[in-house]
Amino acid sequence: MTELSMTVNGKTVTGKAEGRTLLVTFLREELKLTGTHVGCDTSQCGACQVHVNGQPVKSCTMFAAEAEGADVRTIEGMANADGSLSVIQQAFQDHHGLQCGFCTPGMVMTTAALLKENPKPTEAEVREYLEGNICRCTGYHNIVKSIMAASGQDVSAIAAE
Amino acid sequence: MPADGGIGASNKRREDVRFLTGKGRYTDDINLLGQTYVHFLRSDVAHGVLKSVDVAEAASMPGVVKIFTGEDFAEVGGVPCGWQVTDRFGEVMQEPRHPVIAHGKVRHVGEIIAAVVAESHAEARDAAEAIEVDIEDLPAVVDMRAALAEGSTKVHDDLTSNLCYDWGFVEENKEAVNAAFEAAAHVTTLELVNNRLVANPMEPRVAIGDYAPGTGDSTLYTTSQNPHVIRLLMGAFVLGIPEHKLRVVAPDVGGGFGTKIFHYAEEAFCTFAAKAVERPVKWVSSRSEAFISDAHGRDHVTKIELALDAENNFTALRTDTMANMGAYLSTFAPSVPTWLHGTLMAGNYKTPLIYVNVKAVFTNTVPVDAYRGAGRPEATYQLERVIDKAARELGVDPIALRRQNFITEFPYATPVAVEYDTGDYVATMDKLEELADLSGFEARRAEAAARGKLRGLGVNCYIEACGIAPSNLVGQLGARAGLYESATVRVNATGGVVVMTGSHSHGQGHETSFPQVIADMIGIAPDMVEIVHGDTANTPMGMGTYGSRSIAVGGSAMVRAAEKIINKAKKIAAHLMEAAEADIELKDGAFSVAGTDKSVAWGDVTLAAYVPHNYPLEDIEPGLEETAFYDPANFTYPSGAYACEVELDPETGHFTVEAFCAADDFGNIINPMIVDGQVHGGIAQGVGQSMLENCVYDSEGQLMSGSYMDYAMPRATDVPFFNVDHSCQTPCTHNPLGVKGCGEAGAIGSPPALVNAVVDALQRGGHDITHIDMPLSPSRVWQAMQG
């Protein structure tokens, strides 16, 4: 066990981890930030997506020790400062972009990364960017719609509310 | 949209706020003081004699608390099956013991051989690797046809064969059906596979057992769609714990799709072990474990024959299916290929004679049970595929052939034992033709052809029986449970309402939609209503959520309880206004006396119920809390018509889904936004089944598709935006809300449309291809094109 220190959602935090401890395990079990989820063990599903030093990372692909000193952001740090839903989160609620909610934290983190890179993505670009995030509930229809709405695009023409 | 947020309003989901901010509370988010962790050592062979399990070295490893093997469960009950099918000769099915931990033999890859309980999960896993297991391999029984052959290796030595049951339905009609085939002008035959699937809710299963030595109470936290069912099955049949000493909690659950209905060995283990070690025991499934321990779905091999007369009227239908049960009978497994399948074989059509034969087969594979739609997708797929094939053989339009044979008068008693109360199949087909712009298809096809692509159009109809189910009926059919639902409506002194429901929400949005009903009934804002579910300690005995039953059965229970509340509140209001009870009206959250300007607010009445100073205590009790159990009079019968358009590259066999349209009749709708979302998700799962997903075993019983690296889950690029509509509404006639349920429709209705579309594209491209088995991967399509 070694003592690690990093910045998570703007706060400096410390905790213990074995060399083999994954970042997602450290976040969930040591820091009790359970919003980041584990949906697979092959880095396919994206439920564990976080940002490390501003880059989207599947936190099951990284050892906690590798994040020593890093700036980590998780779903718990995505709301506005006053606690209200951010534009992305609000768009997901407005357009029913989630059902069971399990993949949702990863979807929100991926969306934030996408919109930083590409503020006005096309439908095809959104779908392509979601390649590493699996949702079993929504059929992606309302996720894609939510993301396009979060980017400020008019989604009223997309079939069905 | 109603302005008041009641029935029919697309209210935004209140549960979203916690899910979007990382504040959901899923089972894996629960950690109890002093918790231990279990790692299961699972069989890596499909079939073998368990000669020894040596835990001596593992037991001395760091952090190990206790190791359990099959010996520890030899005196404990087996994991029970909740449905007993009677075969066509009047005999009950063969039902093997299903041990919590394997004892004597292992029967599928993934079966639990030993369980290590340790201080951390890493230590439990390390110690499990040190357990020495000696297994004498036996031949694996994988293929169903081989399993039924004379002299096959038996999965269970104590059963007479690998045949669980041979079911005929309706057995008395068999000869008449055969005679109709003899007399037919045309017979279309199709052999097909309904591919084996893994449900794959994104949240893997989790179980935490907890035991309180001071009281002797056990608690199980589990990822379940129906905590009361788990409490009953595990308490009564496995561990012998009476229900008043056992609490089951299913908090936020990350999707179910059927596979979280069932009672699993891991739940019983954690509950049992927590008592044995007097500490909480937590298990978190990895995705790899989920593939070899969650019940799988589908896996039917079918031959279907459709008889038509000279005018193309359907005269008879005959089907012959082998259904894989896997190595053991999961909770509802026997019901899926029988009562949830055979009763749907009439579909939307007035075929007068139907005979369904199903042979359920044991194999050395993971148990197979209900997956979204459960039996109804299998029925719909074969029926809608054979109709399409018949239309092509006869040279008639597939839609016209369907329309010609539609049931048009309701109620309609089918020859397969169910009575459809309402429906309008012409209306949903008309709507579909409009949604899918069928008249514009030829132009789209020509445009695609100019680019060298084959464009195809597939259409199908579906009917489902859901809102399951009348208890007395399912009891006759072999269910070992009732299928009512319950609700307690508790009105607080200041007028707020809490509904404690036996239904469970794991993505369906009950916390948002159920209050809309109460809001409408009383005339209060939906945010004055809270929904409590998922905990046997604070909800009445309920049967949970599956079979598209929540609003139809659970919602009806809630309405009945709310009606009792309103009746009592009217008595109180009558007393307060010194009026006759019969004259009291409730509207917009106020009670008034008909024909007068007298009124009292909802809150005045609720306060009086709890502060009964001026109150008819001689006639009614204080308080405002009522419970109702609702047992449906019939199934509900949602129906619809679906269309899929694909564009296929003849060079590679690769195709894309260009459009998917759904015209559904769900009866009345509570929250259209949520209903649309349910259909979207269902269609994506159907598209997954028909073009991507396949659960594959090799001849040794090894699972070849055991992770997301090799089991192709639908991704965002695999599907288009869907065009769904539920404006055709024929309300259910026998439940108070007139609702039918919408959760499974998309998964039931979509696979045949997609396959019909690909076959259409290929035939338009000059290929004489009448069928390709799902999933229609590019390689399968390409191979078919090569003849």
Question: Would you write up a description of this structure?
Answer:
Chain B: Residues 21-139 form the Aldehyde oxidase/xanthine dehydrogenase a/b hammerhead domain. Chain B: Pfam families: Ald_Xan_dh_C, MoCoBD_1, MoCoBD_2. Chain B: GO terms for molecular function: iron ion binding; oxidoreductase activity. Chain B: Keywords: Molybdenum, Oxidoreductase. Chain A has helices spanning 23-30, 87-94, 104-117, 123-129, 141-150; strands at 2-8, 11-17, 49-52, 55-58, 71-73. Chain A has a five-stranded mixed β-sheet with strand order 2-1-5-3-4, sandwiched between helices. In chain A, helix 2 (87-94) packs across helix 5. Chain A contains five helices and five strands. Chain A folds into two domains: 2-77, Beta-grasp domain (Ubiquitin-like (UB roll)), CATH 3.10.20; 87-150, DNA polymerase, domain 1. The longest helix of chain A has 14 residues, at 104-117. The N and C termini of chain A lie far apart (51 Å). With 787 residues, chain B is an alpha+beta fold. Chain B has three domains: 16-22 and 484-630, Aldehyde oxidase/xanthine dehydrogenase, molybdopterin binding domain (Aldehyde Oxidoreductase, domain 4), CATH 3.30.365.10; 31-139 and 205-284, Alpha-Beta Complex (Aldehyde Oxidoreductase, domain 3); 296-469 and 634-785, Aldehyde Oxidoreductase, domain 4 (2-Layer Sandwich).
